Amino acid sequence: MALSMSRMLARRLPGRCFPAMTSGMADQKRGFQFLSVETPSPFVAQVQLNRPEKRNAINMVLWREIGEAFKQLASDPDCRAIVLSSNDEKGFSAGIDLMDLMAEGNEANEAPDVARKTHKMYDLVSRMQGDFTELEKVSVHDMFMSWFF
């Protein structure tokens, strides 16, 4: 029954995913350097890692973009599913970009004393964790369940 109901809505509301963001979606996509955000079908967003030259290694920019994209999509009432994928045929991601992370660590290491170094590293890790926590905050499943029950 749920499937037929969603098909019925998809026929009634074609292209309605991100109605408030549809006109801004192109601007939003240009704002992301290493992410592509598409709407392949109604109520579905596809967020695709787009850094093939580095096998989608997650640098600080991509890290922030993932958090921002999921934060925006989580607040869109017409987005019911998000697909996170990669444009790399060989794999999803090479993991964290170690050179980028080392550069961030070196910047923190330039602080004049241990307390400031520790504080800068804490800020860096907190910021990174906050961006990835946005994935956990997306309550697409809750919206799906509450819609049907």
List the helices and strands and how they pair.
Layout: H1 2-12, H2 22-31, E1 35-41, E2 44-49, H3 60-74, E3 81-86, H4 98-109, H5 114-137, H6 140-148
Parallel strand pairs: 2-3
Antiparallel strand pairs: 1-2
Protein traits:
disordered C terminus, 3 strands, 149 residues, 2-enoyl-CoA Hydratase, Chain A, domain 1, single chain, alpha+beta, 3-stranded mixed β-sheet, disordered N terminus
Structure notes:
With 149 residues, the protein is α+β, with helices and mostly antiparallel strands. The protein contains six helices and three strands. Strand 2, helix 3 and strand 3 (81-86) form a beta-alpha-beta unit. Helix 3 runs parallel beside helix 5 and helix 4 (98-109) packs antiparallel against helix 5.
What is the assigned CATH homologous superfamily? 2-enoyl-CoA Hydratase, Chain A, domain 1
Give the amount of beta strand, in percent.
5-15%
The number of domains is 1
Low-confidence stretches: 1-30, 142-149
**Share of helix, binned:** 40-55%
User: What is the structural class?
Assistant: alpha+beta
Q: What's the overall geometry?
A: flat
Task: Report how far apart the termini are.
Answer: 12 Å
How many beta-strand elements? 3
- Determine and state the CATH class: Alpha Beta
* Mean pLDDT level: 77
Number of helices: 6
Strand order of the largest sheet: 1-2-3
CATH architecture: Alpha-Beta Complex
Strand count, sense and barrel status of the largest sheet are: 3 strands, mixed
In short:
This protein has helices spanning 2-12, 22-31, 60-74, 98-109, 114-137, 140-148; strands at residues 35-41, 44-49, 81-86. With 149 residues, the protein is α+β, with helices and mostly antiparallel strands.
